[in-house]
Amino acid sequence: MLFPFFNVLLNGFNFFFHIAASWYLTGTAYGQANALLALFALLSVLGLSIQLLTAKVVSKEDRTLSLKQLPLGSLLIKTPIILSFTSCIILLMLLPVLRSVLGVDSGSLLLLYILVFLHTIVSMTRGDMQGKERMLALNINYYIEVLGKLIVFFILAVLGFTLAAVLIGSCAGMLFALIHGWIYSVRQNTALSVTAGNSKLSGIWKSLGQDFTDSLMTNLFVLFFISIDMIFVQHYFPVQSSGYAIALKYSQLVYYVSYSLIAAFIPKLGANGDNKQGLRKLIGIYSVLMICAAIGVYIGTTFIFPLSIPLLFGEAYQSAEQYLVLGGWVYWLFSIVLFFVHVHVLIGRRKFMWGMLAGAAALLISFGWWHQSPQDFLRAELWLYSILSIYFIIDAWFYLYSKQTLPAQKRQQHDPTILN
Question: What is the mean pLDDT of the chain?
Fold first, then answer.
């Protein structure tokens, strides 16, 4: 019950990290830092998928055993390491392209690659904690990361480092979390692991495949939509990128709050997958919450956030005010889309992925063709999320009020833990 509370508090620490970064970084460097962290958020889909896979396997085994002792323990430990090295090799090949797109130096990108490498392995240990429902240990691991990141950042910032301080601090925090997770999950005791046979592996991969794919695609779409605009702003408008990044932190507050609400809804949505009346009630509750959120977005973007920018980030970033209103409504609409995406996944409906894929393609085309100002990116997102929201609402209406019911035995059963 305490995990959601500590999770929201953790987001507060991360928000403070961005505030602190704005104190020490110049406008251009702050924009570069946020573009790099946006790219990291997109690349972290690999680690999140590893976390899912590990959690699902561990949850089906004896939870008193360490990760090494599980039948698939050796595979669960080796797979993230192999994927980490593979992803870094691919990213090294893309170094010139990413350097040109983001306008950053090679050293910053190499630090980002190290961060992706560490995150992928850390996610394996976090999946072990999640699968065993050791939520306190999981919370501690997240806090070790963020507090370690803050401490190292402040030390380096005082010594005169700027952009490197953000990236090295992030890598240090992830390394501390990896040490904690490795000791907790892998080296908990020294018993030898048991190697599973090929037939058992085949059966397990078959049973995990659909849920793993759902989680991978869902996380990929979510991370893409919350990251891609910052990357494009850094590429086309490097001077305005710092102000845009500040506004983005405010705008995404409604996303983080709604995501916490969705996390609370996940067990009930999964339990009511065959109960349309229950689903109608849950969607109604979330609708009321989003109406309240709309009031909060209006008050925040119109009155509170503009006044807080110079107080928290400094007068130099007051230009962020011009993006607040559009950004707030963009992420309010995205929160509606996100809720219905989770509903579709939890009740076994996957056709939404085609709509999300089309939306992602349309967004990329729009960003490439129309970019007179950063506001053009926000307007494109506003239109896209409006269309997707209307589509999901109409689709939900027909699904919930139609008399046709999908037979339970033909529905793809879904494990709600893949969305955590």
Answer: 86
Distance CA(196)–CA(212), nearest Å, equals 20
> What is the tens place of the pLDDT at every residue in 80-128?
999 999 999 999 999 999 999 999 999 999 999 999 999 999 999 998 8
**Which structure tokens are listed for 395?**
């689709």
C-alpha distances out from residue 316 to 5, 32, 240, 249, 311, Å:
33, 16, 11, 16, 11
Separation of alpha carbons 376 and 143, rounded Å? 37
Burial of residue 246, with CB atoms counted within 10 A of its CB: 0-12 exposed, 13-18 middle, 19 or more buried: buried
Comparison of pLDDT for 4 and 371, the residue scoring more: 371
Radius of gyration of the chain (CA): 22
Is the torsion defined by CA of 253, 142, 2, 57 positive or negative? positive
Q: Which helix (H) or strand (E) holds 28?
A: helix 27-43
Residue 23's CB is within 10 A of a number of other CB atoms, namely 12
CA–CA distance, 390 with 89 (Å, rounded to integer): 41
**pTM for the full predicted model:** 0.83
Chain segment 174-217, per-residue pLDDT in tens: 999 999 999 988 766 544 444 444 445 555 555 566 666 777 78
**pLDDT tens-place string over residues 59-80:** 777 777 777 777 777 788 888 9
User: Largest Cα–Cα distance of the chain, in whole Å?
Assistant: 67
Are 336 and 287 in contact by the 8 Å Cβ rule? The answer is no
The first and second tokens of residue 327, run together, are: 């950004």
Q: What's the Cα-to-Cα distance from 401 to each of 31, 270, 272, 280, 344, rounded to whole Å?
A: 47, 19, 15, 9, 16
Rounded CA-CA distance 86/91 in Å is 9
Alpha carbon 296 to chain centroid, angstroms: 23
What are the b/e assignments for 406-420, b being 16+ CB within 10 Å?
A: eeeeeeeebbbbbbb
Amino acid at 30: Y
Question: Distance (Å, rounded) from C-alpha 168 to C-alpha 172?
Answer: 6
